[in-house]
Amino acid sequence: MTGIPQKECSKIFCARVKEEIFHSITHHNQIWQPDPYDVENIHQESRDCFARLLNRISNAEQTDSGRIMLLLGDSGAGKTHLMRAFRNQTHEKGLGYFAYMQMTSSVSNYASYVLHYTIDSLDKPYCAISGNMTGLVHLSNALIERRQVVSQNDIDQLRNGDLSRDELNDLIHKIADDILNKQGERFRSVDLDLIRALLYLQHDEPATHARIRKYLRCENMSEYDCKLLGNITPRIQEDDPDRLLQALAQLMRAINTGAFVICLDQLEDIYPAEDAGIKFRRAMEKITKLAEIPNVLVVVACLDDIYSLLKSTLPETQKDRIEKDPDPIILRVKRSEAEIRKLIGIRLQDLYDSQGVDSNLDDSIFPFGGEIPASQVGKSTRQILDWCRQQREQSILTGVLPPHPDQDPGSGPVPVPVPVPVPVPVPVPVPSFDQSWNDYLVGSHPVPESENEMLQLLGRMLGHCATEFGHSLECNIVQREDFLDLDIRNTAENPVIASTIGLCQKSSRGGTLAKQIDKLQTMAGKRTAIAIRSVEFPDNPKSKIALQLGEFIANGGKKVLVSDADWRTMVAMQSFREQHAQQPHFTRWLQDKRPLHSLPSFQKILDLTDISPSPDGSGSQGDPIDIDKDPDPSRLKIGVIQGYQSSPYEVDISQFARHAAFLGGSGSGKTTLALNIIEQLLLQGIPAILLDRKGDLCSYAKDEAWRTPALDPARTQMCKTLRDKIEVIVYTPGSIEGQGRPLNIPIVPKGLENLSSGECEQLANHAAFSLGRIMGYKDQGLDKTRIVILGKAISILSQLNKGHTLTINNLLDFIDKDDPLLLNAIGKLDPKLSKKLVQDLQTLALGHKNLFSQSGELLNTENLFDRSSDKTRLTIISTNNLGSNDNILFWVSQLLLDIGRFAAKSPSEKLQGVILFDEADLYLPAQSKPATKEPLENLLRRARSAGIGLMLATQSPGDLDYRCRDQISTWFIGRIKEKTALDKLKPMLSEAKTDVSSKLAGQTTGEFYAIHNGEVSNIKADRSLVQAEQVPAHEILKLAGKKKENPISSFIHNIFATL
Q1: What's the average pLDDT block by block, 10 residues per block, for the chain (1059 residues)?
Q2: Neighbours of 108 (CB within 10 A)
Q3: I need a surface site. Which of 14, 408, 415, 534 has the fewest CB within 10 A?
Q4: Class of domain 43-330
Q5: How far is CA 482 from the centre of its chain?
Q6: Paired residues of 489 in beta bridges
Q7: The pLDDT value given to residue 229
């Protein structure tokens, strides 16, 4: 265990800190939280299937109906853990909206049940690591921020204007009409009242938000409430929940083809109930009906044996709908040695990092011995984690570490304080109230309307949490005017919390919210001030209140969003507890499940992080190009179809807006085929960008490459036409000043602030991830937190500095001085986190000056596609001077982000440019997550709407990630011999109408199987006009440094040359 501070790690392992790290059960209330211990290669088949179905939805042209994904497995297989991973994947990548619910056995209206938990799910933070914005507000933002639909003036008025109720209603009706009228066919079937309802969430008024949530839950509303919402008609008919669910799905589809994922967990809970078969069939009828909507993805999880019993009650057609395309996935319970090592290691590293010890564990699982994973092979994740928990508990009690094979037998254990052993009681099985609580939450639980009543409710429920902690905490709550003083002590009478809580519900307009914050700080004095609000706190970095909130946090305050769902849960717990308090084991259930403390808002208020849940729980020689007849300008001839009678193989130009992939081993001719297509597109006036890793694509900048003799006069003429029509520019990013043609990158694309809030946040997060990767950060633990801080800083600075390029020095200063705007966005900033982050950014700026140099041209996709001249631009970017792969990946990730920014602001129905990524497996690998991976995945989904075609070429098809294959409409597959590559291609090839997997290895240079929409053609590709050959690095610099030739000078030079 070289390099690991054993003594420090030993003390931490034997201390009562982060006791939850080996907790083996994922509870439903953890679904909404990031999972720091997720091991992505466990249940890889399920993750790949889910990713593919998500990508399929975003590719609307391939979507006829929704899908149902059935997960089966034994208890402890990890079904709920997977649901959590699916939710995080959907929301972190901004691919849609995720609703989670557990099966219930008593409700009669399943649509109402699904709707209730859908609104509850949407009322949770959309992406917890990025802030408190709920899914409903995220959906509302996506609706109103559609480019060139709603004017910025109307958006500002709705969000910040001091409007009367009539003015507010009129403005919302106007905006809703604008959205429907300007979106045309896309919004034709979207519910107008739903659009209006979501628009009200843009207005900063908690009472209005509460009324909207009643409407969305299909609850009865008073005439007064309806009038305040523009005389909206409440949805109280029996089939209204079903209609609203469909309306939500249609709206999500209309907005960026977003997915609506509905996860139905623990299906087995229905089985013990009376008439289980009838209720099961009724529930399945409802979800299969929902899954008819193209963007709906239903994920069903159940114990394998229970599903086998229940499915016999289903009609055969319904069973086929559930079990086919995709097939059911049986979750493998038994873990491998490598998986076990990762399961243990990732938790231990988080434990040590949390205490400020940089463990750098890598493959070590100290203090467990290296042989432990092998001894646990074949056990389930739950069994393994339970074993680890027991070992650590024993070490905490005795101060003796688990046996370690590397320990010197004579040295004895590492000395640590030895507490008096306490007998651990054997857990007694208790009746579960899970189902009763789950069903009870679906009922109507009106939230108090007055702020005083809300404050009293919060006080009672905070006191209730003492019961959930088994009275290991003494909770004292006193109401003082409009504030709560909360004092919590542990059993040793040591103060744990001393805070003052204030409900800050006023509008940010007119300074009323600012006054509430001021008064709260005054009343709190030396205590921790906690501001509570039922709608999002203002976060516009240009507003005074955002600055004040940041200063509030800098002074030790906390701000907590208590969602409508959380308030309803508090109301429900009051009456639920009254009904069941006298029943045996009810208190044990509260202590085991902690239904209130598990709420995100309660966890932030109490912040009892160390009190853990109960432990129970190359060129080819092709045929000459035929130009004897006038070609169709909308189609490209790229080869001939091989057979008894060969015929031209043509492809519609528009097809390349939906991306293409070129696969084949060395010498297969894949690059030549891609260049052949690009040359023809250039002739049609469509610009191209070539990302050149090897130096061969720079051949287009060499005069000699255009003078290669051709046997066919037609090809000679075509070559001359192409050269006259295009302008070739070579960039050499990373080259020193005065050499080549540097292309410098900003930290984030310029113009980020002009995008929608969702697009801005996503690009900022991608930029932060890229910076983190080049600084060696991992996507977990404290490193992930630092990446989140970076993302927020980038997002805020982009909004504050419109039109200016963001530099590393800007970031450094902003983070280093704990700017209040940053604190308002992320909460309290741990000095340990910010100090290391600033140090790492300083090291990055000093060690990679060429990457961030502000001299030379700045990366800008508009310039790369330059349409300002009469010639078509061919831009070649040589990565030769960037150095290491890490530098290349970082630079390319920034290129991808800028292309994404361009795509977002430049929609086009026609192909307006193509980009070739040679050796694409580096940017989109199967087994790792470089800085380029998520931006490229995102671009594959989004670039179509901008008419930007991506071309991915690789000679290592076995290393490419195929989970995004549905985003690529055309595949050219050349000679492939490697078994690994063939195995990975089989799932995709199996979807084609002709099985060609056995024929790939026998293909010669220039032979490909072209696959498009399931149709397979065996083609012989035409060769490109220019043959790509390796260009030396020093020559690339010369080619890049050549100045654009002046036509007059060239003319005079040619005259004198002939004399």
Answers
A1: 74 90 84 90 93 83 78 88 94 93 75 93 88 91 87 92 93 94 84 96 91 94 94 93 95 89 87 75 88 93 90 90 91 93 92 80 81 92 94 92 59 44 45 80 88 94 88 84 89 74 91 94 94 91 90 92 93 94 88 87 79 40 40 81 81 92 92 95 95 94 81 81 94 87 83 78 88 88 88 88 81 88 81 85 84 78 86 95 90 92 87 94 91 92 91 91 86 90 81 79 91 88 92 93 57 46
A2: 9
A3: 408
A4: alpha beta
A5: 40
A6: 474, 495
A7: 95
DSSP 81-146: HHHHHHHHHHHHTT-EEEEEEE--SS-S-HHHHHHHHHHHHHTSBSSGGG-S-BHHHHHHHHHHT-
The sign of the CA dihedral 877, 880, 885, 886 is: negative
Q: Coil, strand, or helix at residue 499?
A: strand
Segments of the chain assigned to CATH 3.40.50.300:
43-330, 668-745+862-1059
Distances 71 to 307, 524, 747 between C-alpha atoms, Å: 10, 50, 41
- How far apart CA 366 and CA 349 sit, in angstroms, is 9
CA-CA distance, 372 to 559, in Å (whole number)? 44
Q: Are 76 and 380 in contact (CB under 8 A)?
A: yes
Query: Closest Cα to residue 84, out of 43, 24, 130, 32?
Result: 32
Nearest to 784 by CA among 41, 95, 127, 16: 127
- 851 with 808: CB under 8 angstroms? no
CATH T-level fold of 668-745+862-1059:
Rossmann fold (3.40.50)
Q: Cα-flanking dihedrals φ and ψ of residue 429, to 5°?
A: -60, 135
Q: Residue 926 in contact with residue 960, Cβ under 8 Å?
A: yes
Do 616 and 597 meet the contact criterion of CB atoms below 8 Å apart? Answer: no
Contact status, residue 447 vs residue 454, Cβ threshold 8 Å: yes
Q: What is the pLDDT of residue 430?
A: 47
Q: What is the pTM of this model?
A: 0.81
Q: Output b/e per residue, 626-664; b: 16+ Cβ within 10 A.
A: eeeeeeeeeebbbbbeeeeeeebbebebebbbbbbbbbb
- Helices then strands, counting H and E runs in the chain, come out as 38, 23
Sheet containing strand 635-641, strands side by side:
647-652, 635-641, 1015-1021, 1007-1012, 970-973, 660-663, 948-954, 913-917, 688-692, 872-878, 726-731
Return d(Cα 676, Cα 700) in angstroms, integer.
Answer: 12
Using DSSP's 3-state secondary structure scheme, residue 1008 falls into strand
Task: Specify the pairing of strand 970-973 against strand 948-954.
Answer: unpaired
Contact 16, 396 (CB under 8 A): yes
